[in-house]
Specification:
coiled coil; mainly alpha; homeobox; about 70% helix; about 160 residues; Arc Repressor Mutant, subunit A; transcription
Length: about 160
């Protein structure tokens, strides 16, 4: 029985044998029957051992490729999550800015309506002479009498 095991037992490959197998594998990762027999004779090992080595080597390549793909996808995900966090911060900042502008506008509108109440006339609001019916942002433009540019200022130049 021991003689049977020693005959079917695979030998470990030497560094020279491994180098020859690697060289052949790099040339073509598929093994045809003729080449398998030729390599087995050259290496002094059974053809099945050569075929098994090729099969294991292809599996190792596939695993390494999957690991690389996984790392690439992981980096892409990290970049996307980082970009998403930055965008969320920007949205929060812009919402805060919008709230402040809306508060200013509300304050402006309430102070404007209370000052027109003090005068006792709503004609000021609808008076085209005072241009109070213009859009609220017009009040932020420098006052030049009728919301126009001052002398020397050309807004559309």
């Amino acid at each position: 029985m021991d003689s049977f095991r020693s005959q079917t037992r695979k030998k470990r490959l030497t560094p020279n044998q491994l180098m020859l197998l690697e060289t052949n594998f790099n040339f073509d990762s598929k093994l045809d029957p003729g080449r398998k027999s030729q390599l087995a004779l050259q290496l002094g090992v059974p053809p099945r051992q050569v075929a098994t080595w090729y099969q294991n080597r292809r599996a190792r390549d596939k695993n390494q490729s999957l690991e690389i793909d996984h790392k690439i996808l992981q980096l892409r995900l990290e970049n996307i999550l980082s970009h998403n966090a930055k965008l969320q911060e920007e949205v929060a900042r812009l919402k805060d800015k919008l709230n402040k502008v809306q508060e200013m506008l509300q304050t402006f509108n309430s102070s404007f309506s209370s000052s027109s109440d003090e005068v006792g006339s709503t004609n000021l609001i609808h008076s085209s002479k005072n241009h109070l019916d213009m859009e609220p942002y017009a009040s932020f433009i420098r006052d030049a009498g009728q919301f126009g540019p001052t002398e020397g200022d050309d807004l559309f130049a």
